[in-house]
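Exercise 7. Predict the joint structure of the components listed below.
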Amino acid sequence: NAGVTQTPKFQVLKTGQSMTLQCAQDMNHNSMYWYRQDPGMGLRLIYYSASEGTTDKGEVPNGYNVSRLNKREFSLRLESAAPSQTSVYFCASSEAMTHGYNSPLHFGNGTRLTVT
Amino acid sequence: DAKTTQPPSMDCAEGRAANLPCNHSTISGNEYVYWYRQIHSQGPQYIIHGLKNNETNEMASLIITEDRKSSTLILPHATLRDTAVYYCIVRNNAGNMLTFGGGTRLMVKP
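Solution:
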């Protein structure tokens, strides 16, 4: 049981390049999330998917797109990378995010992205 | 969203109890308090959560004041491996996201 798996672990991009960060979970969770963490700071939510087929913006969605490919997979795409997107990106999943349902998040170990 | 306030850093001696405080004075009645921790370079790890009553699991205890305006996470016998950033989070009204603040950097010392 791997939990939440993120690929790649490290990536260096040049400004303007595009890439997709992959995330997969094997816990049969309904909800998935993408966070970013800048050096010395807490996590900020980029996008989330409450259930298969739905996606919504979080706190900092600009410059990103997401796809909930199926129940297991939730990808994050940078169409035109900028140095301000240099960060560590974490994917997470939870059983559900229905109002009042207190389902903990399970996180992957992150993708470290540098944009030069 | 209810905001949380935590001290930026704390030290604890190995083997002693670590008590990490959190202020959430604007919490509303149906919001839960969650605690996560992040060990260097890893993804955050869920520790415990609660609504009104005190909670205990194999990792920690959570004490929530009667007015719910503050809480304390207790690691009963801290080890060096407990050195991490600890985040206190309140789930927002829509229940659709957890907002992480700056957290408390706990250093467990030998």
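Discussion. Chain B touches chain A at residues 30, 32, 34, 36, 41-46, 49, 51, 87, 91, 94-103 (CB under 8 Å).
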